[in-house]
Amino acid sequence: MDKYDLLFTGTVRDKNVFLEKIEELLILSDIGPQTTREILVKFQEMNLHQYRVNDFNHFKKQLKDILIDMIPDRGSVLKNDSKTLNVIMIVGVNGTGKTSFAGKLGYYLKNKGEKVLLIPADTYRAGAISQLILLANQAGVETLKTSEGADPASVVFDGIQSARAKKKGVLLIDTAGRLHTYHNLMKELEKIKRVIIKTAPEALLRIALVIDATTGQNGLNQAHYFKESIDISSLSLTKLDGTAKGGIVLTIQKELFIPVEYITFGEKITDLCEYKPEKFIEALLD
Amino acid sequence: MMLGKLSEKLQNILNKIRDKGKITEKDIKQSLREVKLALLEADVHYKVVKDFVTKLEECASQEELSKALTPGQQMVKITHGVLTEILGKTQSKIETDKHIPTVILLVGLQGSGKTTTAAKLALQIKNQGHAPILVAGDKIRPAAIEQLQIMGKKAGVDVFSRGSNENAIQTIKAAEQFAKENKNDVIIIDTAGRLHIDTSLLQEIKEIKELFIVHETLLVLDALMGQDALRVADTFNQEIGIDGYILTKLDGDARGGVTLSIKSITNLPIKFVGVGEKVQDLEPFYPERMSSRILGMGDTLTLIEKIEANYERNELKNIGKKEFREHFDLNDFYEQLKKIKNMGSLEKIFDLMPMQGFGFPKGINQSFEGGEKELGKVEAIICSMTKEEKSEPDIINGSRRRRIARGSGTNVSDVNRLLKQFIKMKKFLKQGPNKQSLALFIR
Questions:
Q1: Which of A146, A226, B86, B223 has the fewest Cβ atoms nearer than 10 Å?
Q2: Rounded Cα distance, B285 and B256, in Å
Q3: B227:A28 CB<8 A
Q4: Considering the domain B5-87 in this protein, what is its CATH number?
Q5: Residues of B in contact with A29 (CB under 8 A)
């Protein structure tokens, strides 16, 4: 039985029950109570009597339209520049899947004809370098050998030199997961960014924040603080193969104007695709 | 999240009923809407919030208006109480003496922190006088075995592992044999991250539990999780049966509403919480602290008590005033520091305060790195200043600084640092403190 059927066993006059069901649907997607409230207000502005009771597709479409409207036009994703070195720094809190994402993105870009170099700049977490090297092998992408405990900024510096020497087009940098509440760790990221800008001023630098689809409202905090610290170019959402909807990214897009670039949905190296807002919202409302 | 946001909102709603004898139904309903919002912002599951608010309504309608607390504070107190009760007692124990060896199985989603937690748990159990062994049961994630080996080394605990050509069950079997010979009395098995909807991987866990005697199956959950946490916990419990939870990444600023959701749906204990990446960073679960955290108050209730004990009502009102902020001099700075000192150790205080909300610049607790010792120096320095210098710190030039340093038995660099901190704080105060935070304390 379609979830929406439940909304219409009563009459449309029972607006509160109806709105509550919509509220539940939105909250459960992790879009957040504030955004949900805004959407409900917009919904209430609609004259519900105009819609036939059985016309639930209409309501789904209305909701979808409201959500799509919410996503700002500006802040679209920067494309790779073929004339220069593209540096993508992958950041995020612990456990979001940055390393896996780096491997998948490497594979994806390689298949698009890019010459990719993967840099394991997570020199902190046990086994992170080995993990990335194994993924790089799977992806058929070159990587740099580094040692645990090395200074990430130095690793990045070496990576840039190597990329130049090998005439690489894209440099993907995996960094250590870090909670945005750690002042000194955010400073470390700022340092890495400075090193990139200083060492490769000609490069197109983008910073990709990786968010786990199961993340709740803290995702907004994460985006806020990472943006404040090093300025985020895009979000990527991981682990969409679970049951979480990842609705928090819509609120992040709306509040912070950071576009979503990729989504991942599994542990295979091929489990990555570009974010398509319409498809994403449809899945969210399902 | 902002300090006392919930309290302040509730205060505004209930302030007008100060003179009435009881909290009215309408007032309760309005307050409950605010509680609902706070809980949803904290990632508590939608249905759980509904049930909780219903329960709260029952409790609140029976309460008499307190004479000591404001209605807003009282509502918060009631909410906090109900929430703490639901979260259960501190049961941060794993029974290790009943069975030899005790077998602990860690399961959870990808990236939840199982491997790190396994090592943390092993260290804790080792420190209790046992001989644990870690088993590398994650055959899926690249370099998972290496990760556990490194973590195990940090914990000073042996790690049993076999290559990835062997499956988890074969490894566990071999591990049990090894543990017997090696005289390990606790076996901690790390497993691969898996989705609660991955039937084949869940099957692996079911098989493990059928073939081996597992005494504790613990679900490792990320405190950053949102609404999906309830479903994950419920599904894992229904499918494989769990005995409790370990919540990770609580060193962040996630409110941790997950805890209320999972407690409500399964009523299983949260045994430990992870509070950092180091192998020592495992703590017991404290329901009252979690309750304050979920409500967005940090340990504010404790702070409320401390502040009430150390500040007169007028003093707090004055801090909010513009004149105070504009004429904030070293005398004021000194007075505030003394109060803070009385309220408890500096570290603890800065820990309790969501910094920005209370008006301190971010990172200022790092300026007071020395804690009590620093404060002693600060006192000495300020005492060595003249009245004029304290009220007009701008005149403190090089020679004055040298004199002050000599007089206080400190270095010029200490004096410089103090003045820098003072300027920082004054600048910040000039921006105007967060009125909402002050409203929390001013009745």
A1: B86
A2: 12
A3: yes
A4: 1.20.120.140
A5: 227
